[in-house]
């Protein structure tokens, strides 16, 4: 009986393969749970409540108010600068009421009063020039041409986004890589068990032939 049990014991290499497989399975499961709770759920809520529409620019203006931003020009070089507030008012194909355009959900949360936040430069004048350039872009290049925008009529009826923060590609990768990790772990465990089973059977057949 002792010899029979010893035959089914895994070798050191097989034991390492089994541990690696179980580790990958656990990593895949925890990644799916973590991403689902912390990131994927709000992303799906954003997409589920949002819709796409065609937007047309109504007005482009700079407010007199300026906002602070943080810049970094090195390890020991940090500070704050200011930029003017640019507002782009649009009308959507779903509603005749004007709405404020934002770059994406992240920009909306950072500064819900403005449509654009420039890359923060140390010089306020450079920030103003970037905002003025964006203002000319919306006035002259876009003008009255319709473009695709996104909005959530239930959560933020007065705001629209130029692009979604969480697109299909990001959501796909959020699912794909933890799933691949989990499947690779399962494959390693299954192959190790099958290889051990075949080795045991081959050993048993070999012993029968010698009897």
Concise account of the structure shown:
The protein is α+β, with helices and mostly antiparallel strands and 211 residues long.
Description:
- The chain has 211 residues and is an alpha+beta fold.
- It is built from 5 helices and 5 strands.
- It has helices spanning 2-7, 12-49, 105-110, 124-142, 168-210, and strands at 51-74, 77-92, 95-102, 147-152, 156-161.
- Helix 2 packs antiparallel against helix 5.
- It starts with a helix and ends with a helix.
- Residues 1-7 have low confidence and may be disordered.
The averaged pLDDT comes out at: 82
For the biggest β-sheet, the strand order reads: 1-2-3-5-4
Question: Would you list the SSEs in sequence order as H and E?
Answer: HHEEEHHEEH
How many angstroms separate the termini?
Answer: 18 Å
Poorly predicted tracts of residues = 1-7
**Strand residue content:** 25-35%
Observed structural traits:
211 residues, disordered N terminus, single chain, 5 helices, alpha+beta
Map the helices and strands.
Layout lengths: L1 H6 L4 H38 L1 E24 L2 E16 L2 E8 L2 H6 L13 H19 L4 E6 L3 E6 L6 H43 L1
Parallel strand pairs: 3-5
Antiparallel strand pairs: 1-2, 1-4, 2-3, 4-5
């Amino acid at each position: 009986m002792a010899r029979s049990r010893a035959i089914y014991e895994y070798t050191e290499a097989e034991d390492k393969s089994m541990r690696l497989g179980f580790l990958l399975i656990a990593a895949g499961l925890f990644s799916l749970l973590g991403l689902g709770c912390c990131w994927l759920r709000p992303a799906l809520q954003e997409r589920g409540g949002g819709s796409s529409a065609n937007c047309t620019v109504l007005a482009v203006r700079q407010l007199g108010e300026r906002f602070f931003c943080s810049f970094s020009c090195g390890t020991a070089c940090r500070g704050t600068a200011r930029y003017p507030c640019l507002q782009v008012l649009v009308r959507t194909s779903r509603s005749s009421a004007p709405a404020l355009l934002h770059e994406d959900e992240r920009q909306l949360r950072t500064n819900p009063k403005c449509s654009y936040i420039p890359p923060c430069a140390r010089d306020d004048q450079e920030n103003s020039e970037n905002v003025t350039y964006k203002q000319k872009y919306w006035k002259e290049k876009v003008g009255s041409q319709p473009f695709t925008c996104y909005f959530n009529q239930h959560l933020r009826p007065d705001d629209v986004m130029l692009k979604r923060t969480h697109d299909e590609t990001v959501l796909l990768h959020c699912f794909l890589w933890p799933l691949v990790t989990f499947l690779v772990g399962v494959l390693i465990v299954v192959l190790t068990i099958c290889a051990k089973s075949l080795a045991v059977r081959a050993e048993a057949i070999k012993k029968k032939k010698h009897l």
